[in-house]
Structures are given as structure tokens and as C-alpha cells.
Design a protein that fits this description.
Cofactor: FAD
Low-confidence stretches: none
Bound molecules: flavin-adenine dinucleotide
Helix content: 25-40%
Structural class: alpha+beta
GO molecular function, one term: prenylcysteine oxidase activity
CATH topology: FAD/NAD(P)-binding domain
Keywords: FAD, Flavoprotein, Glycoprotein, Oxidoreductase, Signal
Strand content: 15-25%
GO biological process, one term: prenylcysteine catabolic process
Number of domains: 1
Mean pLDDT: 94
InterPro entries: FAD/NAD-bd_sf, Prenylcys_lyase, Prenylcysteine_Oxase1
Order of helices and strands: HEEHHHHHHHHEEEEEEEEEHEEEHH
Length: 403
Amino acid sequence: MQDFVKILGLKHRREVAGKSAIFSGEHFVLEETDWYLLNLFRLWWHYGISFLRLQMWVEEVMEKFMRIYKYQAHGYAFSSLEELLRSLGGEAFVNMTQRSVAESLLEVGVTQRFVDDVIAAVLRSSYGQSVLVPAFAGAMSLAGAQGSTWAVEGGNKLVCSGLLKLTKANVISARVTGISLHSSEGRALYQVHYESPEGQGSAFYDLVVVTTPLHPSRSNFTFENFDPPIADLPGAFQPSVTSVVHGYLNSSYFGFPDPKLFPFTSILTTDTPDLFFHAMDNVCPVNVSAAFRRKQPQEAAVWRVLSQQPLDKPQLKTLFRSYYSVQVTEWPTYPRYDSAKALPPIVLHENLFYLSGVEWVASSMEMVAVAAKNVALLAYNRWHQELEKIDQKDLMHKVKTEL
Ligand SMILES: Cc1cc2nc3c(=O)[nH]c(=O)nc-3n(C[C@H](O)[C@H](O)[C@H](O)COP(=O)(O)OP(=O)(O)OC[C@H]3O[C@@H](n4cnc5c(N)ncnc54)[C@H](O)[C@@H]3O)c2cc1C
């Protein structure tokens, strides 16, 4: 993503300082302060060296994950998610998609209390799920929570529109309804059917990449003439609701009767039954000018509230003293990581590839960008019969010795 931003001449959005806290439904279990050392001391006081163990664990996973950039720079590709993970971190990485993040962290000496208070809060705010999400997805989410994330000035969507323009792709704005298999001179040929307000259409392609989840709730198109047939994949998606509220925070609910004294801009929550939201944060515009300042806590501001169910009026009145507007978006967002165990395939047919399965390893723009490059390299290597560039073992050694 960093490369895309550079290539497109975009900029990172300016960071606006703000403090976070974790709420249990009754009180804050952890509060960030302005002082780095005090924050460290509080973590140590509450949780011993758990946070250091966590940091070491996340860093080790990330260090191994980053090998992918080197492999891809040398043109290597993988025909399955398992092979890709194995090349980065051995069998341990594959296992990290099967066992929970809680189990992995307890094993490296992180305490149950730290898992319940801090890890649970991070995973609720990112994936809307519990500490039972797989360790790999958990590690990605925890890496993001360590403060190194960034956004694009003007909005992340500028990356997508910019790349589309740069590739000079011929974009057909339509909904794909199906893909059928044909053959030409012994080679597979794929007919992609689509419909748009102008009517129905179709076109033939040598190579197709499916970039939306193959689950009925997300894509809703069919495959025809394939033998064996390509069926919908197992697994469900986590329903998630984002409510963007312009209003006055009810700081009393969080134990601050005087709204002027409310110090937090981001509130995470522990996995407490009956707690009706996962997280909320005070959002900044996509363009942050040098003069931009956050609203004072007693002023009306724009808050984003994440929850599993749409918030009803009493719940909105619990979080806000009053509000001007509420915009609600409901979507089947992330994979429900407890609903399927096997990882989806990358190769659906000879030259028909599937990208979105990577979200079952971990769901983020970076993961999808890495997986997209893998599919591009895989398709290229298969087309040109460069089979020595696919699923190679011992790549760390190979890339070190290659010029
Ligand atoms: C609420 C939320 C917050 C997130 N926050 C972050 C974050 O802060 N950082 C981060 O890195 N990631 C975040 N993610 C994850 C990130 O958005 C995804 O990993 C990423 O969008 C996946 O990109 P994609 O192109 O594979 O799929 P998508 O972005 O899902 O794109 C698939 C596209 O296919 C289209 N489509 C579906 N069916 C058809 C069809 N039949 N015909 C034609 N088109 C079709 C869809 O309309 C959609 O535009 C978040 C996700 C959600 C839901």
C-alpha cells in the first residue's frame, strides 16, 4: 500500500493526537495518558510484562510476514494460501490460521487478564469478534493497534481510483452474474456475463481473477460448465454495523459527569455480555488541514460507533446526550472466523483465480494487496510456464543467493 501511495504521488493524512481507553460497561479498565512513560508504567502495573511478550510475539510474526515482499520482488508466487504461509513462517504460520490468538498468546506467557482486557478489546474493535479469532488474523490486528497505521490524505479510496487510472484498464461498470467455461484450441476460455442499467452483456477472457468473496451473501454469481462444479465456499461473514453520529457524547455514561473533563477520543470495549457496542471513536475528516483541531469534548462532534446490531433509540441515548444525525451502514464485513476451518483455494480452474480467500488468513488492505500481487505473478508464471517460480521451497536461501 505504501508503494501505491508513492507511485500515485499521494500523501499520508496528518495524524491528529487523541487518547484511547478500554471500557468494561461499568468503568475504564485501562486509560491512556499523555505521558508515554506513565502509559508503560500502567501497563506494567496492571499486567506485568505481558505487553512486552505481546510486542515480541507480534514483531516476530511481522518480521517473517515481510519476507513476502522480497519473494515477490524476485517474481515468486504461490498456488495456495497454505504454500504462501509455509514459505514465510513454516508449518507454524499455517497452524496460526487454525488455532486461536488467545491460545497462542497464553502459550508465550501473556496473562489471561491481559487477553481479557486488552486483546479482546482490540479484536472487538477491528474484527468485531472474540479472542477466539485465529492467531494470524489476531497478530495482524494487534500490529495495527500498536499505532503504526496510517490513512491517505483525501481518503484511502484514492488509491483504488488512482491505480485504475494508472493501469489504463478498460472498466465495465456492471454486476457480474456468472462465468461460464468454453475452450478454444484446447485452451480454457472464460465467458464473463454481466448486467448493467444498459442491459446484459458478456465477454470472453483467457484469464479471470475473482475479487469478491465466493459466498452467496457477498457476490451472488454462478459458474457454468465447470466439471467438477465450482461451488459456493463454506463459512459465514460477521454482520457489522457502523453508525456515524453527529452529536454530544453522554460522558456521564462513562463516569465523567462533567463533559469538559472527558479525555478520550477512542473507546474500546471488553467482551462483556450486554455491552451493545464494540468500539467508538471521534472521527476526523479525510483531509486534515494544518489548522484542524478536534472538537472540545463538550461540543458536538462526529463519532463512529461499531456494533453487531443496529443501535436502537435507547442505546443511542445512552451514548449521546443528544444528536443531530445518525448514518447507519450494515454489512457482512469480515469472515466469521469460527465458521470455516480450511483456507479457500487460489486456483479455481486452469486460468481462473480467486483473490478474496486471503481474508480468511487476515482481513486488511495490505493482505489483499499482497495476495493480488501473488495472483498476478502466479497467473504470469503459469501462462509463461515459469514453473520454477511457483511454490518453491527454501526461498529465504534462494533469494539471498540470487542476483
Ligand atoms: C467496516 C470495515 C472497516 C475496515 N477497516 C479497515 C482498515 O482500517 N484497514 C484495512 O487495511 N482494512 C480495513 N478493512 C478491510 C478492507 O476493507 C478489505 O480487506 C478490503 O476492502 C478488501 O478489498 P477487496 O478489493 O478484496 O474487496 P472489496 O473491497 O470487498 O471489493 C469487492 C468489490 O466487488 C464488488 N462486487 C461484489 N459482487 C460483485 C459482482 N457480482 N459483480 C461486480 N462486482 C461485484 C463489490 O461491490 C466490491 O466493490 C475494513 C473492512 C470493513 C468492512
